[in-house]
Design a protein that fits this description.
The structure is a single chain. The chain is of the alpha+beta class. Helices cover 27% and strands 25% of the residues. The chain is built from 16 helices and 30 strands.
């Protein structure tokens, strides 16, 4: 079809502009020689003659002007990554040349005229796929539009095609670049989302530099209105209602790289970091088996645990519950939340160190972290920096000796610990109020420590109930020493290879003394050999007198009546004498002779020898038993 093209008048009542005549007058077009002779064509020829006389446009004879009018178009991008790095963070002028689909544009970067295919960051519109054959049944396959692909394409074409805009290059994918189109009228990506003509794609969302919350809000609006792509959308109802949306508390335990225990006003709460996954053991190959694994055996799990331990243990945190995951199989109900400490999102910090990865959710799955986009950006940074689990290098190996499993090795290790004095360690586990699993980082060893000098109620084992106040004692020590830096002082060892000694927290606080003072342990008779024996006795006096906890049923025996004629007890006097040990027995006792009796004994033995020589005994007169 052929027709005329006019530009509207610049002012009301003005004359509209004929595009063809304006182009001929500027020397941009030539008049076809085979045109019929009409008044209109004559006018075009006159305009062409005038342009030629003025050497405008195509009629110029200057080679320099001709060369300057030729665009040096670069049709291929040799290295998209370098192109992005060159312009990253800086808006670049561009001209939209083609709209491939609602979220894919082909454009020229100005003034270099670099031709690129741009995928809009964070979104994906319905596209056109190859399918079937051409109309003649022999040609190339025809394009088949996905639902709402035509609408999305027209939506973008009517607003951007052949228009000058600015683009922000934010990433690359194969030979394409990923970026955001900046237009004075607004962001076309959020407009597509709001109209239900595009969906957010999480893998690309991390590239969006600013305004991620606007993307999520626009998509949420389209979902609620069930527009176009969301016409069949049904909100996922929470499997478990959230009883407490937000709370604060102190972190008591790091269960693993994604789960912590928080002591809130309403009690202990097990909290899982939403939308992240900690390091896991690599999958087993065919025919492979795996024994019991600890935190030291799984690559980067120890590093992740230590990062959380040093940052959170004993610290106050804010918890905002994102969703509740219902119990399934062997997994209990889980509280999935965003945890912050001193304004820092803990999950984001963990992911940015490469010590956790971000879970990929389905597009219609709203049960995710409120800071999900920030997690994606953090993961992208970790990948770019090749940190943690994203590093191509072999993971660090932790060879830790578990002395709990080898009593012989524990007995060989005991003299070293005894000589070392106070040694830095970390309490890995508390089995009861007085029994702990301690890790020594410097010695790379794990052993069982039993507190010396006290008796603590035993916790239940193998179906047996706990003794009274055992659970309270266990919780008492957990809140004070579990996963904390401590100092251990070993002075004895039992037959099983367990170390017996003292545990100090906060440099000087003796845990045994604290337990006794809280009425959760009693002083054992073996405590009299300990340097802190008097401290234990003083700590025990208060709860014992008040009948607190383990002393609640204590009845003090009446003192025995004094005997009138009992001899007065005198002060013992020490008398030192020189002796000669003549025999040492296996039980540690020995026989000795006074040194001063030596000459008398020599004389006696000499006299006996002379007597036996003078009158020897008759043979058979003595029969030994």
């Amino acid at each position: 079809q052929f027709g005329q093209l006019y530009l509207p008048a610049a002012a009301a009542g003005g004359k509209r502009e004929d595009v063809i005549k304006a182009s001929v007058a500027a020397g941009w077009l030539r008049v076809r020689a085979d045109k019929a002779k009409t008044a209109e064509n004559d006018e075009l020829l006159e305009l062409e003659v005038a342009a030629a006389a003025g050497k405008l446009g195509l009629h110029t004879e200057e080679e320099a002007r001709k060369a300057a009018a030729v665009r040096a178009t670069k049709w291929n991008v040799e290295n998209p990554r370098m192109l992005v790095e060159e312009h990253k963070g800086t808006p670049v002028d561009a001209l939209i040349e083609q709209v491939r689909d609602g979220s894919t544009l082909r454009l020229f970067l100005l003034p270099s005229f670099q031709y690129v295919t741009l995928l809009m960051s964070g979104i994906k519109s319905p596209t056109f796929k190859r399918g079937g054959q051409g109309e003649d049944g022999k040609g190339p396959s025809a394009e088949v539009a996905e639902p709402f692909a035509e609408e999305a394409k027209y939506f973008v074409e009517s607003r951007l095609l052949q228009r000058e805009v600015q683009v922000r290059l934010e990433g690359s994918s194969n030979n394409n670049v990923i970026g955001t189109v900046i237009h004075p009228a607004g962001n076309i990506a959020t407009s597509l989302l709001g109209e239900g003509l595009a969906k957010i794609v999480d893998w690309s969302m991390a590239n969006v530099a600013t305004g991620k919350e606007l993307y999520r809000a626009a998509e949420k609006t389209a979902k609620e209105k069930k527009l176009r792509l969301w016409r069949n959308y049904t909100p996922a109802s929470a499997a478990t209602p959230i009883t407490e949306k937000e709370f604060s508390g102190r972190v008591m335990e790091i269960v693993n790289a994604e789960t912590i225990v928080v002591k809130a006003a309403s009690g202990l709460k097990r909290v899982q970091l939403a939308s992240v996954r900690g390091p896991k053991a690599p999958p087993l190959g065919e025919g492979e088996t795996r024994g019991r694994q600890t935190v030291f055996d799984v690559p980067y799990l120890f590093e992740a645990r230590e990062f959380l331990r040093k940052k959170l243990i004993g610290k106050k945190v804010q918890v905002v519950v994102d969703f509740m995951r219902a119990a399934e199989g062997n997994y209990p109900e889980r509280c999935c939340a965003t945890v912050t400490a001193d304004g820092v999102n803990i999950a984001e910090a963990l992911v940015s160190k490469g010590l956790a990865t971000v879970l990929m959710h389905r597009n219609d799955d709203d049960q995710r972290s409120a800071a999900y986009d920030d997690l994606l950006v953090a993961e992208q940074r970790a990948k770019k920096g090749a940190k943690g689990v994203h590093s191509p290098k072999p993971p660090p190996v932790h060879r830790v000796s578990d002395l709990q499993q080898d009593s012989a090795k524990a007995k060989n290790f005991f003299p070293f610990l005894q000589r070392a004095g106070r040694t830095h360690g970390v309490v890995e586990y508390a089995a009861s109020g007085s029994r702990f699993k301690v890790y020594l980082p410097k010695e790379t060893s794990v052993f069982t420590l039993v507190l010396a000098g006290i008796s603590c109620p035993r916790t239940g084992r193998q179906g047996q109930p706990s003794e009274p106040w055992a659970d309270e004692a266990l919780q008492f020590v957990k809140e004070r020493v579990l996963q904390r830096d401590v100092e251990v002082l070993v002075d004895a060892q039992d037959k099983s290879g367990n170390m017996i000694g003292a545990l100090f927290v906060n440099d000087s606080t003796n845990v045994a003394v604290e337990l006794v003072a809280a009425g959760l342990a009693t002083v054992h008779f073996t405590a009299d050999r300990l340097a802190y024996h008097q401290q234990l006795l003083q700590a025990e006096a208060g709860p014992k007198a008040k009948r607190l906890k383990v002393w609640e049923n204590f009845k003090e025996e009446p003192a025995a009546a004094a005997v009138a004629d009992a001899p007065e007890e005198k002060e013992r006097k020490v008398s030192y004498r020189d002796v000669l040990a003549s025999e040492v027995r296996a039980d540690g006792s020995f026989y000795a002779q006074l040194t001063k009796d030596g000459p008398e004994l020599d004389t006696l033995m000499g006299n006996l020898r002379v007597s036996f020589e003078a009158t020897p005994p008759v043979a058979g007169a003595y029969t030994p038993k």
